[in-house]
């Protein structure tokens, strides 16, 4: 009886809290709608003047090849990409007046008390408890005496080049060399990686050696000129520091990763945090750390947008004891620079009304030319699995499991059963970035899961996503000893969303019992691959966002795990061969697709790499080197680094380099500076002729 009373009391508490939260949310959304409606109704004719002026200025900027205020933006190479870049950066839909805020539009937390109510309600619903302490945040890391704070370096000059026929793109820095950069998803938005170059120097983050190597990019005379020793725990230390990636901007290098500490002396809020160490590269032989930033949660990713470093972390709250007695500021997201710890204010924390997650996604911006302090910091109550950034827009996607259990039912034969239907949905949250300031704009929930960041795209003010939809059904026969039946199904879908992330167009029920393997959006056309036994490559026409249609379906053995534009009318696929009868994957495979007619896509030619069975390109696009001008494709596979060239109607292997022997770890990177091609591995950096792939030098990384 006591158990039942406690159960009813808990349920009553949950209902009361959920009703309160729903009332708060509805009232605030209605107020936002009312204010927006007033703005629409009262719009004098002269209000349009600033918008017209901005549009005219932007058009002029595109015509002359540079956008005002851009610190790291490549010039579009044709009218179509210029139009796409313009509309994407502005982020305005074609018919914005028709967009209406969703009832579940994101709103900032009104107070710490409201955040506490939300967290308590979610804890009660999950049936768990909070695991944490009331201790203050642990002492922050300050630069050591040997690494004094110094004045920021002046803003680096910007070099912008056309990329129609060049082998690479110059971004920031004063080098006049031609060089390649990271394989980024969006032109002009740099992504963090373990190898970077500015055309003069090469920077290689080597986690296994616990160093960052700085090499002179000097062809056969290349050498290591400086190193940065990574912080490494000693025998009795209770922490681990994982250096994941780097970002480079002029004379600033940012080392990014996750710090974990399991000591009893450390508060749970400081057990796991994302760090960004800022180094001054004024002297490449002796880089100096000038600041250390921290934000709670595990490191997810970073982007460089118009001179702003954007860092995303995933901060999970674990429930092991009642959260009611814990001060809300204890688990409220925090950020810190050196010894200056800041707890986010309520108006910096957004509620994702679609999510039941009890953790936060934390977003920060840092002026990349300075690097000594945060410009902006925000958080949203919800998780983070994939991140897409178009420049102005940042989409955060997280997976959320759902399960619905029916009451006991009676079958036609008189037997009794309970049905459990489950699946995974995607919570999508949109932020905008304007001069370093981060603001939440919209949120939604879609059935299914995203493969990765390439499953998302922004174009002409609309947002497009491709998902795999799963539906699981479990039937429990409850007469006597329980008996179970399990059925599952999957298919794929494409959604087009407006600026409030309202779905306006969709294609459903594609590729039954298959999963999405790769996606690439190219303007008005989307290409995506699904797989079970053969590889259907779909092309979809998105020119009318409200009525997307499938144009073509190409079925071939195997599948492409990554798709990359390869010049006019061509699409490169990298994946695996497969047995047509069973769908068993075999060798690594390169495919060149002819997409000159999107309604009739063909596989022009292919190459099965017989001595390569695996490549991590499918999980990390940044390990891939692609240079369309020279028709070169390179990536690590198994224990080697392969270099191919597309010649006529075939791929030709022109290089195969063994860098790490049996200890490869799949972390090799390739890049070029002028006529030299550099392959950076765990144990060595190899310099080759970019034309012939003849080895010019080998530098051991000790």
Gyration radius, to the nearest Å?
A: 27 Å
Overall morphology:
globular
Span between N and C termini?
A: 69 Å
Number of DSSP helical runs: 5
Question: What profile does the largest beta sheet have?
Answer: 9 strands, antiparallel
Strand count? 42
How large a portion of the residues is in β-strands, by DSSP E? 35-45%
Structural class: mainly beta
Would you write up a description of this structure?
A hairpin with a 7-residue loop joins strand 9 (272-280) and strand 10 (288-296). The strands form eight sheets. Strands 18, 19, 20, 21, 22, 23, 24, 25 and 26 form a nine-stranded antiparallel beta sheet that branches. Strands 1-15-17-16-12-11-2 form a seven-stranded mixed beta sheet. By secondary structure, the chain is mainly beta. It is 13% helix and 44% strand. The chain has five helices and 42 strands. Mean pLDDT is 81; it is low at 1-18, 35-97 and 130-173. The chain is globular, with a radius of gyration of 27 Å. The longest helix is centred in the N-terminal third of the chain and has 40 residues, at 2-41.
SSE topology sketch:
Blueprint: H1 2-41, H2 48-64, H3 79-90, E1 107-108, H4 112-126, E2 190-191, E3 195-197, E4 201-206, E5 211-216, E6 224-229, E7 239-249, E8 252-261, E9 272-280, E10 288-296, E11 298-305, E12 308-315, H5 328-331, E13 334-337, E14 340-343, E15 349-351, E16 360-367, E17 374-381, E18 386-389, E19 393-405, E20 409-410, E21 416-434, E22 437-447, E23 456-459, E24 462-477, E25 483-497, E26 503-510, E27 515-522, E28 525-531, E29 534-541, E30 549-557, E31 559-565, E32 570-578, E33 585-594, E34 602-609, E35 625-627, E36 632-637, E37 640-647, E38 650-657, E39 669-673, E40 676-680, E41 684-689, E42 695-700
Helix pairs in contact: 1-4
